[in-house]
UniProtKB/TrEMBL annotation, chains A, B:
<dbReference type="Pfam" id="PF00742">
    <property type="entry name" value="Homoserine_dh"/>
</dbReference>
<dbReference type="InterPro" id="IPR002912">
    <property type="entry name" value="ACT_dom"/>
</dbReference>
<keyword id="KW-0915">Sodium</keyword>
<dbReference type="InterPro" id="IPR001342">
    <property type="entry name" value="HDH_cat"/>
</dbReference>
<dbReference type="InterPro" id="IPR019811">
    <property type="entry name" value="HDH_CS"/>
</dbReference>
<dbReference type="GO" id="GO:0050661">
    <property type="term" value="F:NADP binding"/>
</dbReference>
<dbReference type="InterPro" id="IPR036291">
    <property type="entry name" value="NAD(P)-bd_dom_sf"/>
</dbReference>
<feature type="active site" description="Proton donor">
    <location>
        <position position="205"/>
    </location>
</feature>
<keyword id="KW-0560">Oxidoreductase</keyword>
<feature type="binding site">
    <location>
        <begin position="9"/>
        <end position="16"/>
    </location>
    <ligand>
        <name>NADP(+)</name>
    </ligand>
</feature>
<dbReference type="GO" id="GO:0009086">
    <property type="term" value="P:methionine biosynthetic process"/>
</dbReference>
<dbReference type="Pfam" id="PF01842">
    <property type="entry name" value="ACT"/>
</dbReference>
<dbReference type="InterPro" id="IPR005106">
    <property type="entry name" value="Asp/hSer_DH_NAD-bd"/>
</dbReference>
<keyword id="KW-0521">NADP</keyword>
<keyword id="KW-0791">Threonine biosynthesis</keyword>
<comment type="pathway">
    <text>Amino-acid biosynthesis; L-methionine biosynthesis via de novo pathway; L-homoserine from L-aspartate: step 3/3.</text>
</comment>
<feature type="binding site">
    <location>
        <position position="105"/>
    </location>
    <ligand>
        <name>NADPH</name>
    </ligand>
</feature>
Amino acid sequence: MKNVGVAILGLGVVGSGTYKILRDHREFYKETQGVDLSVEGVLEIRKEKALALGIEESKIYDNIAEIVSNPNVDIVVEVIGGVEPAKSFVLAALHSGKTVVTSNKELFCKYWHELEKAAKRTNAGLYFEASCVGGVPIIRTLIDGMQANVISNLTGIINGTTNYILTRMTREGANYQDVLKDAQKLGYAEANPSADVEGYDAAYKLSILSSLAFHKKVPLDKIYREGITEIQSCDIAYGDELGYTLKLLAIGKNGEKGIEVRVHPAFIRKDHPLASVNDSFNAVFLKGDSVGDIMLYGRGAGDLPTGSAIVSDVIYAATHSDVKYATFKNTQQAEPGVKFVNDFRSRYYIRFTAKDRAGVLAKVAGILAKYNISISDLIQKGEGCENLPIILITHETNEYSVRRALEKIGMLDDVVSVDATIRVES
Amino acid sequence: MKNVGVAILGLGVVGSGTYKILRDHREFYKETQGVDLSVEGVLEIRKEKALALGIEESKIYDNIAEIVSNPNVDIVVEVIGGVEPAKSFVLAALHSGKTVVTSNKELFCKYWHELEKAAKRTNAGLYFEASCVGGVPIIRTLIDGMQANVISNLTGIINGTTNYILTRMTREGANYQDVLKDAQKLGYAEANPSADVEGYDAAYKLSILSSLAFHKKVPLDKIYREGITEIQSCDIAYGDELGYTLKLLAIGKNGEKGIEVRVHPAFIRKDHPLASVNDSFNAVFLKGDSVGDIMLYGRGAGDLPTGSAIVSDVIYAATHSDVKYATFKNTQQAEPGVKFVNDFRSRYYIRFTAKDRAGVLAKVAGILAKYNISISDLIQKGEGCENLPIILITHETNEYSVRRALEKIGMLDDVVSVDATIRVES
């Protein structure tokens, strides 16, 4: 039986989950994987936290040097999060030739090349399944399951907090602020929710996932990002009437014009498999040239689901002798020659408020036509009121055309306000 | 650059798809995987088929011996299907130390232990992702993605033909025979459809998948199997009224009482992620003790989707030096000590035709109560007719109790016939 020692850096939510899984499954892994995984150390300054989990005092460290110099530690699990001190700790482990397993999306998205360089130098393993979409094995799938395919499209619901909020807004017709407060009470959203609700968390993950899917480093700054804070529940209801569900989508496309990466709220048709991904569940939808459409669905966060991904990497590292690194050039920026699309194409849901006067629609339609935008659906509400909402969905068009057309529409005398612009993905 | 030679045994649908993928992606794999995969031989007696694909004449063989003795061939892809001659060919390849990649579910399900023994002897790789659920990477996920979990439940829609037929019966209210004929015309069903519609194909796959999920060999003969040939569209419609969708499910459970494996039509709630898996799409839903619920969705058959799984295994074999075999004892039967559950628990949809007389329902309810079966839903149709259908759904109960109760109900004077019994899964 092979003995493999594990150290866990940080006993927060994911660290504690990881510890519990390793502790409770030790015999199971011996039987089914032929490997004895023992936790040889934890790095945690809150000693009482470690003791409460039943960890022996002699294995609780407050100093990374003691862990990376411990010959019993083969694999270092980093679940601290954020850039520092996680980065220094991971580099120290790699320098000592320890394999690293991490759930740290921000670190990985920003310093992938640097970590990989360090890992290669000592031939250490570097695994990051837990950095994206929690327990869903999307990274292993991209590297070892879909690698026969040229992937043209990756669309994901990859942030649980925003999906929980949007699901409740959809079900209850409640407004954003009320649901957010409730989500914070229930632990689904942080006290400072901006990383989630502004789309940063999804953008980190999209950077990692689209880099793997498209075999080109997709840096964070190439990702268009828009959060859900401005979403009004009436738009969710109008969209529903037209057959759509609103989700915060992370979208990566790779086509002739280049790579297109964006995180923003979007309507999708109710019969799309992503439309029924609700609450804090996540899913990633991929399109490969051979496989066609596939989707992976599961829990994107939480102590045990993310711990499952961590321990899956630990077992993989413990039972495979060769490491397959990602194949990017060692650069933090985009490689020269890789093109990125800014003026992407989409359909658009537009809501504006107009005065109830003859000819308003004709003027609006005229402006849209000037920018080659054609209308596929239209609802007009509240007949007889002085001001009334008009909702329309366009056919596919360019982002820049829509922006310019909306500026012009906003300047019409009969238009009181342009209230909402939401992309519609097909 | 590593050069790896591939031979393809059989240029049927999957073989041709595999060849096309390898041919069209050769440069792509060099770039992204660092490996040059060349097709060094095909075994195909229909020479013109190979020539039409653009294969050089010198690489077309009609004799397995020439392929397994060819030093340029490292990996042998078996896509012939069925037991013989596929089995002899695979064994010949393994004896020569060639790694084998196969899509052959019947062969793998029946002779897994024998193939694995042969592979271990020469340290050859043995990969079978394409044997189950086409392009969906469910085998890699079970082996390398979910291995941190004790899996208690695996539920799948793993046969495309039956899902296509049931989807059309559901949408159109059409009857089984008509849709089957249409499916045969369109190439979704074979001229002799019994392997699909009687559930054999799903049972082969369930045997493989549940063996991997539960780390115990689950032999074919332990799987309860029931096809879709008796399904009437009126039951699909009544189920719809009660909030359920009908699917052919492959179900594996592993609990305290033992392993329970069954393939049969079943109603599932419309909001279950499997309920929206339509047409020829497949999906597998897993429950792990750490990860919770996860689902993989995609195309379960077809030249390119299954070819994608084959080539994914080929690349994996070409880029990983160590082989991880499954961990069963070398036996074709169930291991002694492994318990299997026959009298499984489920909810039941029951439809029977009764004479419109007072007291029928009371008598039926009385019999059910005697067997400890309680009713959760009931619809009675066609009031005023002489004979009328009564539809009920039970709470969870034992299979054997239901069978005995239905025998008694069938003997009641006022009951004309017991027309349908369909399990309801939650």
